[in-house]
Amino acid sequence: MTTFQDLNLSEPILRAVTELGYEEPTPIQAQSIGLMLAGEDMIAQAQTGTGKTAAFALPIIEQLDTQAEGVQALILTPTRELAVQVADAIAAYGKHNRIRALPVYGGQPIDRQLRALRRGVHIVVGTPGRLMDHLERGTLALDTLRTLVLDEADEMLNMGFIDDIEFILQKVPDNTQMALFSATMPKEIVKLAEKHLENPQRVTIESEEMTVPQIRQIYYEVGGRNKIEALTRILDIEMPTSAIIFCRTKAMVDELGEKLLARGYAAELLHGDLSQAMRDRVMKRFREEQVELLVATDVAARGLDIDHVSHVINFDIPLDPEAYVHRIGRTGRAGRSGVAITLVTPRERRMLRTIEKMTGASIQRLRLPTIADVVVRRREAFKDTLRELISDHEDDGTLAQYLILAEELGEEYSPVDVAAAAFKLLLAEPDLEAEDPLSAPEPEEEYGRRDRRDRGSRRDRRSSRESSRTPRGRSFREEGMTRLFVDVGREQGVRPADIVGAIANESGLPGRAIGAIDIFDNFTFVDVPDDAANRVLTALARTQIRGLKINPTLARPKG
Length: 559
Ligand code: AMP
Fold this sequence. Notes:
Distance between the termini: 60 Å
Structural class: alpha/beta
Number of strands: 20
Bound molecules: adenosine monophosphate
Helix content: 40-55%
Low-confidence stretches: 442-477
Strand content: 5-15%
Strand order of the largest sheet: 3-4-2-5-6-1-7
CATH class of the largest domain: Alpha Beta
Number of helices: 21
Largest sheet: 7 strands, parallel
């Protein structure tokens, strides 16, 4: 197994990669980085979603002389979106290297680019047309160039950029290192490579014969910004007894874990930064079914052998088909049935097709559940719970103390009206007339449209808060739950995990029994089961959260 440390990258780059939460190189990175550092020309068959950007960007940054004048690396991309995205990625990878990277594309005022070019940049990422413009005007010189990358070469040819590319390649110094990345390898690409690359090394990601377990595989298309809302809705519909949710990075595991907790889903996290003792504890809780959801990276989940996993959810689509097979192999074990669910953003469609092709799997597309679907599902669950309560009461008198109340109201109103009013209170269903953030078409991933998307995401947040009052299986949480008030909040650095941790550790109440957690600037509300409320209060009064002594009390009822 190759690690980033094995790849001869220096400390600042390793640090940046760690900060981004990458745990290990993807196959394309493991193969390309060494070759590029060795100065080889290279043809790599790889598409978006495989980590190809870092495959060329890390060695470019590694070899950069930040003191020298002039452009040292040029990356050609088919679209301005990709140019901006690659430049952003380079900035992130080179965060500790004081590099300057500039995206250059048509549609942006040229004088802004001129000013930036004049100030001096190390790396230029651009679309062929605009780059050719600059070369013709003499505003971009390539005589100091050391590396040239053709990114998504097949796309550039499809878009008719071949003449522009040829023009640019004429201007490149003879000894420039060239790397060509392309999802497909049509004749024209091979010809281009033969003409311009010198003894290129070929990188393809061979994959072993893959056997996919016989489980139901489905996918949902989601906009990048709506993924968490989509996930919670899927959880509400599927009601998994035990699910592993895979993310691409440690950072995403942390972020998703925190958001799930904040919405009332009990989740444990697993990634490479945890101590062995922590991992053991997490695994024990998951194995013993004390938590339903385990959010993990590929590396952390490797080798997990748990029989009861009902669902594998790819919150982030895996970076290569083998990872897909490994992930979904966590469910359907020991002859049980399992479901594998993958969230796919529009940009990742192609990766999904590749996975289907390489694994021979047929992955069925489903439409995302609507709010109404979730409401119907919850009502069914609610009815089941009521049925259980009613039949239990005959034996154990659980309802005794409410019977008088029901009888009293039953004298004033029809029992059906009384029940309906009680259901309304208990279910606290979202407004079905409200706009569904998931049904609005998500703009294609595009820059310059941020405003609209930001507004959209604000709307999401509101509606997901609403649904956070009634997350899965807890739609009637108010019943049987007591709300506690804790006098620390966001300003004191409190996160949901702190509250869950303090309660679980001090009172022994399992995390999944804890209800909604609402963190405000200076205080926090947390719901716990009625019968545990006193125990939790006493336990919390003895403990500290984020190093602060706290004063927990019962929250005052509303109104
Ligand atoms: P790319 O194919 O370069 O567009 O990368 C696809 C996604 O994978 C991006 O979101 C990257 O941030 C992410 N990524 C790239 N390399 C790694 C890695 N080694 N581990 C985890 N995520 C990665």
